[in-house]
Design goal:
The protein starts with 11 loop residues before the first helix and ends with a helix. Strands 1-3-2 form a 3-stranded mixed sheet, with helices on both faces. The chain has a single domain, classed as Metalloproteases ("zincins"), catalytic domain (Collagenase (Catalytic Domain)). The chain has 128 residues and is of the alpha+beta class. The chain has 4 helices and 3 strands. α1 packs parallel to α3 (89-100), α1 packs across α4 and α3 crosses α4.
């Protein structure tokens, strides 16, 4: 896999493929996900405001629609990524999208991270 050394310019097509693969793996067939790339100061501000953690992180997810019915296409939410704190942008997109689908590695027994790894393996296979 070729990685872009300029992490401030993530590949939008790769991010889209990663988000779509994560949603398919989670069994979500429709919905909208927004992916934003921010600097370290902004991700730290968001991390403090929403998680009470005063340090930068790689990815945060902000779900919008719950599991109930919606009037139109599901608005799954936003994934916010700090490229300078992320080793693999695509993996961060997958991770964030899985959180938007209701997965939570902080409370499950490893299922989310195992699913994430399967998604990443399929993406790497598609690139190989």
């Amino acid at each position: 896999m070729v990685e872009d050394p300029d992490l401030t310019r993530p590949d939008p097509d790769a991010s889209r493929r990663a988000a779509e693969a994560a949603l398919r793996a989670a069994g979500v067939e429709d919905g909208h996900v927004a992916v934003a790339f921010v600097g370290a100061d902004e991700i730290q501000r968001l991390n403090k405001a929403y998680r009470g953690v005063e340090r930068p992180t790689d990815v945060l997810s902000f779900p919008v629609d719950g599991a109930g019915p919606t009037a139109g296409p599901r608005e799954l939410g936003d994934v916010v990524i700090c490229p300078e704190h992320t080793r693999d942008i695509e993996e961060a997109v997958v991770h964030g999208a899985l959180h938007l689908c209701g997965h939570d590695h902080e409370v499950d027994s490893g299922e989310m991270l195992a699913l994430q790894e399967r998604v990443m393996a399929s993406l790497r296979g598609a690139l190989g």
